[in-house]
Design a protein that fits this description.
alpha+beta; globular; 40% strand; 3 helices; 206 residues; 14 strands; single chain; Jelly Rolls
Length: 206
């Protein structure tokens, strides 16, 4: 079973027990590179404004989103996405094949507490979250008592690694804030099941 391993002497291991492993690495990408990637992604990614049904009505998703497959058979993503992916894959040695992007334009943009859907992840592989642009706070909370909570300010150029097991035991989210914050782009790298010619993965629909 693949295990989460980190690679930098200045890493911060936040959780490492039977509930999983969460580690935060600041300066995973140097400042000038992180700034350049943010500027390029902001302009080159075909951002989508989505709507989702909440209870009895449709509401705007409070952020812009995008997604790219990283397989060789797929259309090439924007150059900055490919460079970021190569950097993350090269230093973590995890064969990430999918990246989801979120663009938080201001403090009113957010993502509610959630865990990743396990049916679209390959068991045992971690999730890596690369942050670019402004610093935003992520809240990570245990689902079961003693419901420990971690408030983590995700700095530009940082990498947050969460093991597969953490999706069973924790939720994570980026709350709205009235504090002055700059725009932020996050890139969430995942290992998803291989697809069939019909576009389905081995566990169901992709």
């Amino acid at each position: 079973m693949p295990q989460l391993s980190l690679f930098r002497p200045d890493e911060g291991v936040l959780v490492d027990d039977t509930t999983g492993r969460i580690a935060y690495t600041p300066r995973f990408v140097d400042g000038p590179t992180a700034l350049a990637w943010f500027a390029e992604l902001r302009e080159s990614v075909p951002w989508k404004a989505e709507r989702r049904r909440m209870y009895d009505r449709e509401v705007d998703v409070p952020r812009l989103t995008a997604h790219f497959d990283l397989g060789l058979e797929d259309p090439a993503p924007p150059a900055a996405v490919r460079r970021a992916a190569d950097h993350v894959i090269g230093l973590t040695a995890v064969p990430f094949n999918s990246v989801g992007l979120n663009f938080y334009r201001h403090g009113r943009d957010s993502v509610a507490p959630h865990n990743d859907h396990l049916e679209v992840l390959v068991e045992g592989f971690p999730i890596a979250l690369l942050s670019l642009g402004g610093t935003r706070r992520m809240t990570i909370r245990a689902k079961q008592p003693p419901r420990r909570a971690l408030d983590l300010d995700l700095e530009p150029g940082s990498l947050l690694m969460m093991s597969y097991a953490t999706q069973l035991h924790y939720t994570h989210g980026v709350p709205k804030t009235s504090d002055p914050v700059g725009p932020r782009i996050s890139l969430a790298f995942r290992v998803k099941p291989a697809r069939t010619a019909a576009g389905e993965d081995v566990a169901g629909r992709y």
